[in-house]
Amino acid sequence: MTITDAATARPADPAEFELPPACESGAFDAESSEARIVRDVLARVGDKWSLLVIRMLHEHPMRFTELQRSIDGISHRMLTQTLRNLERDGLVTRTSYPEIPPRVEYAATELGRSLALPVLGLVEWASTHHASITGARERFDVTRA
Amino acid sequence: MTITDAATARPADPAEFELPPACESGAFDAESSEARIVRDVLARVGDKWSLLVIRMLHEHPMRFTELQRSIDGISHRMLTQTLRNLERDGLVTRTSYPEIPPRVEYAATELGRSLALPVLGLVEWASTHHASITGARERFDVTRA
DNA sequence: CTGTATCCTTTTGGATACTG
DNA sequence: CAGTATCCAAAAGGATACAG
């Protein structure tokens, strides 16, 4: 993804991706724009934290600190940023109750919940095949010294 | 992922992840190690090119240059590196025919093909909902100036 | 509690030259 | 053709201080 520091550099140009400069001798637009779509979505879902947040919010709405506690290694800054991106993409909602101290609830949207489905498929694949991958890695690494 | 430059820094320590320093007051091992597994697999599949390579090889085996031509923006270096990582994880095989000039064929393994399934689910989700995301982004951005 | 801003390190990845 | 190595720019992300 572009969007260097979405939480920080707010007034910058949003929604800006690396459109390949319409290179001539390559694949066609149909294919390459579909590739962009896939990369685009995968970039959102594939970054370090988005999936884990989506997954937590798929169960029930949660507030900021609750999420931070339940996600283990996530930093304050990255949680904010991840939530902002997910909100921007219409995958979660943010509801702020003007109390004191402030309370903010995050929840998955319909879109976010629909994303959770294929994502959970991937999660299941990961659990099922993780050992195979680890094994393959070890074998690969020893044969290379 | 760790593995700074897998194609380059070969003799370094492989298979090394950021094990959280067994922090006391947080989630339990069961949860946090499962989270690592998910992040781990997602890191492989979620980087800039792996998925696209997996997807191409899911259709039929291909050789290096063929892949490079069909993937559009990928650089020589990143294709090598991505293939090396996928090979290491047991997701693709590399078969080199000692001809001159050399010919190398890459193919998805059984494991790689099984990964393609949930991945294609995600790809389908991406195609279906990409417009929603784009729309949400635009709405979000205009309400922020 | 929630969020923003700053600083700084690590990682990612492109360009490019060179090898068998 | 396939692969490796070097160099360098950009991006990701953690720590931390601070504000409402």
Automatic annotation (TrEMBL), chains A, B:
Q: Which InterPro entries match?
A: HTH_HxlR, WH-like_DNA-bd_sf, WH_DNA-bd_sf
Could you tell me the superkingdom of the organism this chain comes from? Bacteria
Keyword match Transcription regulation: yes
Which PROSITE patterns does the UniProt entry name for this protein?
HTH_HXLR
Instruction: List, in alphabetical order, the Gene Ontology terms for molecular function in this entry.
Output: DNA binding
Q: Which residues form the HTH hxlR-type domain?
A: 23-134
Q: Please indicate if the UniProt record lists Cytoplasm as a keyword.
A: no
Which keywords does this chain's UniProt record carry? DNA-binding, Transcription, Transcription regulation
Q: Which Gene3D superfamilies match?
A: Winged helix-like DNA-binding domain superfamily/Winged helix DNA-binding domain
Q: What is this protein called?
A: DNA-binding HxlR family transcriptional regulator
Species of provenance: Agromyces terreus
What taxonomic classification does the UniProt entry list for its organism? Bacteria, Bacillati, Actinomycetota, Actinomycetes, Micrococcales
